């Protein structure tokens, strides 16, 4: 989640005063416009607004991320005004995969803010490219229904006297439907038009 909170801290006030229903936030970052000794060693004061920010981050189960290369994130163009740390990143509590970030001071170009970066590991995933399907109103659909009905009519349901017997019949029913499905389906590839 990317946040910009102006000098009046309107975004933080919104988060503080509104019940925000956002789940599974892995990281929150942005320009929070808060100078504080908690994250800026060159600034000697602590602010109650920082406490609000920490509380908001905690409500999303996030903690202030540590920097691999501490330094300013905002660079002042005005004489006499010092550089500061007002761009922050909060990461999921106790995550062993997401635990710190870096400042790319040399990549700020004409901006007075340096980009923050983090490496997010992505697990390898197998993507299915085909599926077994029966098209509606097709010959395969008719054959599937006929085969299931034919096999169901052969099921002996006259002697169901126990839960175990009922379970056996339901399991057999499941096997019949699965076998007839495999018999009558066609393999098709997913495309951009697949539903």
Q: How do the helices and strands line up, and which of them pair or pack?
A:
Layout: E1 2-4, H1 10-17, E2 27-31, H2 48-59, E3 62-64, E4 66-67, E5 87-92, E6 100-103, E7 116-117, E8 130-133, H3 139-153, H4 163-184, E9 186-189
Parallel strand pairs: 1-2, 4-6
Antiparallel strand pairs: 2-5, 3-5, 6-7, 8-9
Helix pairs in contact: 3-4
Q: What is the arithmetic mean of pLDDT?
A: 88
The top-level CATH class of the largest domain is: Alpha Beta
Instruction: Report helical residue fraction.
Output: 25-40%
Distance between the termini: 29 Å
Oligomeric description of these chains: single chain
Radius of gyration: 30 Å
Structural class: alpha/beta
CATH fold-type name of the largest domain: Deoxyribonuclease I, Chain A
What does this structure look like?
With 195 residues, this protein is an alpha/beta fold. It has 2 domains: 2-117, Endonuclease/exonuclease/phosphatase (Deoxyribonuclease I, Chain A, 4-Layer Sandwich); 130-189, no CATH class. Helices cover 29% and strands 17% of the residues. It contains 4 helices and 9 strands; from the N terminus they run βαβαββββββααβ. The protein has helices at 10-17, 48-59, 139-153, 163-184, and strands at 2-4, 27-31, 62-64, 66-67, 87-92, 100-103, 116-117, 130-133, 186-189. A 4-stranded mixed beta sheet has the order 1-2-5-3, covered by helices on one side. A 3-stranded mixed beta sheet has the order 4-6-7, with no helix packed on it. Strands 8-9 form a two-stranded antiparallel ribbon. Strand 1, helix 1 and strand 2 (27-31) form a beta-alpha-beta unit. Helix 3 (139-153) runs antiparallel to helix 4.
């Amino acid at each position: 989640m990317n946040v910009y909170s102006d000098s009046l801290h309107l975004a933080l006030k919104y988060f503080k005063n509104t019940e925000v229903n956002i789940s599974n936030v892995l990281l929150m970052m942005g320009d929070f416009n808060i100078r504080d000794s908690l994250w800026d060693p060159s600034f000697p004061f602590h602010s109650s607004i920082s406490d609000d920010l920490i509380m908001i981050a905690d409500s999303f189960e996030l903690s202030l991320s540590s920097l691999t290369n501490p330094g300013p994130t905002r660079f002042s163009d005005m004489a006499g005004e010092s550089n500061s740390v007002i761009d922050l990143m909060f990461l999921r509590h106790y995550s062993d995969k997401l635990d710190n970030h870096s400042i790319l001071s040399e990549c700020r170009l004409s901006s007075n803010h340096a980009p923050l970066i983090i490496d997010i590991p992505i697990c390898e995933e197998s993507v299915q490219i085909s599926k077994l399907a029966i098209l509606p109103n097709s010959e395969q659909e008719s054959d599937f229904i006929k085969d299931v009905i034919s096999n169901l009519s052969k099921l002996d349901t006259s002697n169901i006297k126990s839960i175990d017997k009922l379970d056996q019949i339901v399991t057999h029913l499941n096997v019949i439907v699965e076998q007839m499905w495999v018999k009558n389906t066609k393999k098709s590839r997913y495309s951009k038009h697949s539903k």
